[in-house]
Amino acid sequence: MTMNSHCPACGLKFERGPGYFTGAMYFSYGMGIPIIALLTLIIWRFQPDWALYQLVALAWVAFLPLVPLVWRYSRVIFLYIDRYFDPED
Predict the structure, then answer these.
(1) What is the pTM of this model?
(2) Angle at the Cα of 44 (from 56 to 66), degrees rounded to 5?
(3) Whose C-alpha in 2, 33, 54, 62 is 20 to 30 A from the C-alpha of 70?
(4) Which tens digits make up the pLDDT trace of 29-87?
């Protein structure tokens, strides 16, 4: 789960400063909420009598194994967007 400090192919420095990937948290949140909503709808399809908080709680538990994957891709997306708007020569 570690990330290189520089790209092995082009030498791009990934972490430009302290707290650099704080922006990736927003992307992680934006990726996680739709997944949890979709899982909630799928569970509701099979358990329509459950309360909403029960459905969301189970969807959240089902989402937990996906957190490392979402976290990793949110950092990648943040890098692409940051590199697009603030290129480093």
Answers:
(1) 0.78
(2) 50
(3) 54
(4) 999 999 999 999 999 999 999 999 999 999 999 999 999 999 888 988 988 888 888 88
Asked if pLDDT for residue 89 goes beyond 60, the answer is no
CA distance 71 to 63: 12
Nearest to 58, CA basis, from 50, 49, 70? 50
Give every CB contact of residue 79 below 8 A, 6+ residues apart in sequence. 14
Find out whether 14 and 25 touch, Cβ atoms under 8 Å.
no
- The size of the chain, in residues, is 89
Angle at 31 between CA 52 and CA 36, to 5 degrees: 20
